[in-house]
Specification:
Arc Repressor Mutant, subunit A, 8 helices, Rossmann fold, alpha/beta, elongated, 6-stranded mixed sheet, binds calcium ion
């Protein structure tokens, strides 16, 4: 058995196609290349691991039944070390495969046999989605600047001294500046997605954050309360 087939790079998104059926991988990798992607085909778990050691793909398409192992195991390995989007290639009518695939952290699944054009549309959608959710390195909203990677924030150029949760709240709201962020979203994003407790904690941290931003409770400049819904982070309009 040969190694993974690496197609010449043309600067497009790199797709690792893990699929042992040549009747699928050959036409599909050609379609990917025609659409500007850079496909690599791996016909087994071993080939996929070798390909992943050579370079990180932008997205992985993963067949579940491979000659030397289970694609789900590979998905688990990938998820343990990377957030690379994964689309599972599942057999027709295998509901359990779909559920398990999504539980393993796959972003989407496609049922075989599939049309190349449809899967390519899914790849584009998943890539677009995953890029939107990537935190921006540095956000500036009015006089507030947040460096997400460095976990630092400034007001009028002066660095703010924030606790971890205050920083997380600020970064989450700044990422959606101008939009309402619901209390539920803040609780799940900053605390825990399975949060069932009181939201008093949120209010305590929000009050502290507002104080550090120098907010006047009667006329907040940055964090507007949207009653019964949540908060909007936006610089107040100068009058
Ligand atoms: Ca297979």
């Amino acid at each position: 058995m040969g190694g993974a087939v690496l197609y010449p790079s043309s600067g497009g998104d790199r797709v690792l196609l893990v699929e042992d059926e040549v009747s699928i991988s050959e036409p599909f990798s050609s379609a990917l290349a025609r659409e500007g992607f850079v496909p690599t085909v791996a016909g087994s778990v071993a080939e996929a691991r070798a390909a992943l050691e050579q370079h990180e793909p932008d997205i992985v398409l993963l067949d579940l039944m491979l000659p030397d192992g289970d694609g789900r195991e590979l998905a688990r390995e990938l998820r343990a070390r990377s957030q690379v989007p994964i689309i599972m290639l599942t057999a027709r009518g295998s509901e359990i495969d779909r559920v398990v695939g999504l539980e393993l952290g796959a972003d989407d699944y496609v049922v075989k046999p599939f049309a190349a054009a449809e899967v390519i549309a899914r790849i584009r959608a998943v890539l677009r989605r995953s890029r939107q959710s990537e935190p921006l390195a540095r956000l500036t909203v009015g006089d507030v600047t947040v460096d997400v990677a460095a976990r630092r924030a400034w007001l009028h150029g002066g660095e703010l001294s924030l606790t971890r949760k205050e920083f997380d709240l600020l970064a989450r709201m700044a990422r959606s500046a101008g939009q309402v962020v619901t209390r539920e979203d803040l609780m799940s994003d900053v605390w825990d997605e399975n949060w069932f407790g009181s939201t008093k904690t949120l209010d305590v941290h929000m009050t502290a954050l507002r104080r550090k931003l120098g907010e006047d409770p009667a006329a907040p400049r940055y964090i507007q309360t949207v009653r019964g819904v949540g908060f909007r982070f936006a610089p107040a309009q100068e009058v």
